[in-house]
Specification:
CATH topology of the largest domain: TIM Barrel
Structural class: alpha+beta
Number of domains: 3
Distance between the termini: 67 Å
Shape: globular
Strand content: 15-25%
Number of strands: 27
Number of helices: 13
CATH class of the largest domain: Alpha Beta
Largest sheet: 6 strands, antiparallel
Helix content: 25-40%
């Protein structure tokens, strides 16, 4: 058995030496570096001397099995002034045979002497040498713009890394720590150096470039289902063909996916709702109980920007070349493309892969294969944002997507997808009816239509405070002020009741600290605003899609004030919510006395070459499958829920969709159109038994 030194140096000597240094980079630490001090906590550390061209390294091992081992580096002066740098890079090596979890921390002091820090938890691959940058500002992903998750780091939040407490003040960096996380006592990590780096330094790169292959996959990893060439794509599809030919589909189902072996109710020729033995159900046109198991976005995947991304991609077609029909140009909804002036050229890797597999008829192949898959896996609903021919020609029940319209938004409101529309603008009723009529004309006679989702994740939190923050000519504000003037005769009276000091009605704003009276008044208008919205949409649907279900507007926990939900429940046939969680509580939403459907949920994992888990993370594909089963079982056990729809059919692009940079690993299929068998197998088994278990659980 060789010595630790021989093992470490052997691994190092196998490395291909590539200089990451930039003339502008600053060395903060190297073994035997005189300008820094090293402190140890629960760690053993020793320096291995340089040999030949290989730099010396600091070997760190835990003092106790399973406990963190820290090595901290501090300057010989009080702090480092790193104001000209964007981050600190750690040159680390894992000589062992197993992945090694580490945490990197940079601490600084603000002007008042308060500690600030940025932190990154990551995993060193087995037998690897990695230069890992930690950026000072957690909202700065370095050169990796336009993605919600990035290489090495994984998921980023909207403004910070999930592990990050705050940003760093680079003018006063006081301590740098490398932590070996809960490793076995035989684990070892080698630290060769720490550098501060500039924005244009090679050290700002997280991985070697290119890091995206010709199929839109991550280059620097391998996993089951990865395509290495075009023949591999076609071979995977051929193997799935054989599986699908043998897939029997679920037993005991009617033509709509309802429970043919269950109780027979009135057949009306349309989907409807009914409460049976204390639980709400959808009912198929043939009169069978139906629990909606849906999938959103059944179509080709999203575009991703290729402009301004230098050498990220191994291959992107040029105009006129093969697959150049999948090039396009987009501007995002959210500011994810400042690096290219807000928009630019994009490419759709998933669509290109579909053409590689299925040829020029790839769109028809996508539609037919998706329908075959969904039926085999026991999904009985095609959800929002699916392609038109998929809805109309798959023979599977589906939901229709429609939208309200208004010429004005509430100027003082805010919201993730934009400002709230002004439902009191004179254009709202007419334009909303016209919008719904244009959609309903196509679907009003189709028995496969479960119902209509009208709008998605509206910014209800922009009402009512946002209404009062709007200009005096805002129609919703005018309506609100008229309500208040009927209750309060003078501005002095409302000032006293609300605890504000407005000089006239035009200056009136919602108080920062709400009084009981202001809370009551704001809530009353919030309800009035929402009720007018839902009544208007419902009237348009009753006129243009009579007998079909109104499925609400897909509320979210962020945008679901109780007054809005109450107004919704009084009008719609089915309340809809997008509910990203590990499971659904058994008493959730029951107080409203209406059936409820979940428009979106998902789980993602990072064991198949992706950078972001989506909104609810899983450890791996097996855990993802377990979480799916647990979630759907909890939905089915709740007496008011009538279904849940997975978001979405395919993974999002590795480098982020153009809309908003989402690059979530949330598909039933990957970018190379390969199903995640762990998830789909678990879903199939669950879907087969779900009706019996839900009905059997009834009292």
């Amino acid at each position: 058995m060789g010595t630790v030194k021989n093992k470490v140096m052997g691994i190092i000597c196998l490395l291909v030496c590539v200089s990451l240094s930039s003339p502008a980079d600053m060395l903060l630490y190297a073994p035997r570096h005189a300008d820094a001090r090293v402190e140890k906590e629960q760690a053993r550390a020793r320096i291995l001397r340089a040999r030949g061209e290989v730099e010396a390294c600091l070997v760190v091992r835990p003092r106790r099995d399973g406990e963190p081992a820290d090595v901290s580096i501090t300057p010989t002066t009080n702090t480092w002034n790193l104001a000209d740098y964007v981050g600190v890079s750690f040159d680390l090596e894992n000589p062992g045979d197993a992945p090694l979890p580490v945490t990197l921390i940079v601490e600084s002091l603000d002007e008042a002497g308060k500690s600030m820090r940025a932190r990154l938890s990551t995993t060193l691959r087995a037998k690897s040498h990695q230069g890992i940058p930690l950026f000072f500002h957690s909202s700065n992903a370095g050169p990796y713009w336009g993605m919600r998750g990035i290489p090495v780091y994984g998921p980023l939040s909207m403004v910070a890394f999930p592990e990050s407490a705050t940003n760093v003040a680079p003018l006063r960096v006081a301590r740098i720590t490398v932590r070996l996380d809960r490793a076995g006592k035989d684990a070892q990590m080698c630290l060769q150096g720490v550098h501060a780096f500039t924005a244009d330094s090679p050290r700002a790169r997280l991985v070697p470039h290119p890091f995206v292959d010709a199929f839109g996959q991550y280059i620097h990893a391998d996993w089951p289902g990865k395509a290495h060439d075009e023949s591999c794509l076609k071979a995977m599809a051929a193997r799935e063909d054989a599986v699908l030919r043998e897939a029997p589909g679920l037993s005991g189902r009617d033509a709509y996916g309802g429970w043919a072996d269950g109780p027979k109710l009135e057949a009306t020729g349309r989907f409807r709702t009914e409460q049976v033995k204390g639980k709400w159900w959808l009912v198929t046109p043939d009169g069978h109980l139906f629990f909606s198991l849906g999938v959103n976005c059944v179509r080709e995947g999203d575009d991703t920007f290729v402009d301004g991304r230098g050498d990220w991609f191994e291959w992107v077609p040029q105009p006129g070349e093969a697959f150049s029909e999948f090039l396009g140009r987009h501007e995002p909804v959210h500011s994810m493309a400042e690096a290219i002036g807000g928009g630019g050229v994009c490419f759709n890797f998933h669509a290109a892969n579909l053409k590689r597999i299925y040829g020029d008829a790839w769109q028809e192949a996508l539609r037919d294969r998706a329908a075959h898959r969904l039926k085999a896996w026991g999904f009985n609903t095609i959800g929002m944002w699916s392609r038109g021919d998929v809805l109309e020609q798959s023979g599977i029940p589906f939901v229709v997507t429609a939208g309200s319209r208004s010429d004005r938004v509430v100027a003082g409101s805010t919201g993730y997808w934009g400002k709230m529309i002004d439902v009191f603008d004179p254009s709202f009723v007419e334009k909303t009816e016209a919008s719904i009529a244009s959609v309903a004309e196509k679907f009003r006679e189709n028995p496969l239509v479960i119902g209509y989702f009208v709008d998605n994740e509206l910014s209800w939190s922009g009402v009512p405070q946002g209404v009062l923050a709007s200009p005096p000519d805002q129609p919703a504000r005018i309506a609100f002020i008229e309500d208040l003037q009927r209750r309060y005769e003078t501005i002095e009276m409302i000032n006293a009741a609300w605890g504000v000091n407005a000089t006239d009605w035009n200056e009136l704003r919602a108080p920062v600290k709400l009084t009981s009276q202001s809370l009551e008044d704001l809530g009353a208008f919030e309800y009035r605003f929402a009720r007018h919205y839902f009544d208007t949409v419902a009237a348009a649907l009753r006129k243009h899609a009579p007998g079909q279900l109104y499925l609400g507007c897909r509320l979210t926990p962020m945008y679901a004030p109780r007054n809005v939900v109450r107004a919704c429940a009084e009008v719609v046939d089915v309340i809809s919510i997008n509910a990203y969680a590990s499971e659904i509580a058994q008493d959730r939403m029951i107080e409203y006395g209406k059936p409820v459907i979940i428009g979106e949920f998902h789980f993602g994992a990072l064991d198949r070459g992706m950078f972001h888990t989506g909104l609810v993370a899983s450890e791996d594909q097996q855990d993802r499958a377990r979480k799916y089963v647990r979630y759907v079982e909890s939905v089915a056990a709740n007496p008011v829920f009538v279904g849940c729809h997975w978001f979405q059919y395919m993974d999002q692009p590795l480098t982020g969709r153009t809309l908003d940079g989402e690059n979530y690993a949330i598909g039933l299929v990957s970018v190379v159109d390969a199903p995640y068998a762990e998830l789909t197998d678990a879903a199939t088994e669950l879907h087969q038994r779900l009706y019996v278990e839900r009905y059997g659980n009834m009292k």
